[in-house]
Fold:
Amino acid sequence: MSPLLSAAVTVTLTLYGLAMLLALARLLRGPRAQDRVLALDFMFVVALLLLMVLAIRYDSRMYFEGALLIALFGFVGSSAMARFLLRGEVIE
Structure:
């Protein structure tokens, strides 16, 4: 890996870690349930991006499969939480 790409990956991972910490603060402190759901969804997206950058850094395909699983669970979790907040129940 070139030194420029290595530095870019390091900076990206650091900024994604900072984004996760800020989202965690919103998740814990959010005044409404909608803020907490949005923060959790944002954390899923950042975790997905984090795995994609790690896949580039370590040149491994296993991280892509993990990112796919996180995307799937994030979508299902966000859909379930949105339905719960709108209707008060997840399963009809």
Remarks:
- The two ends are 51 Å apart (CA to CA).
- The chain has one domain: 3-87.
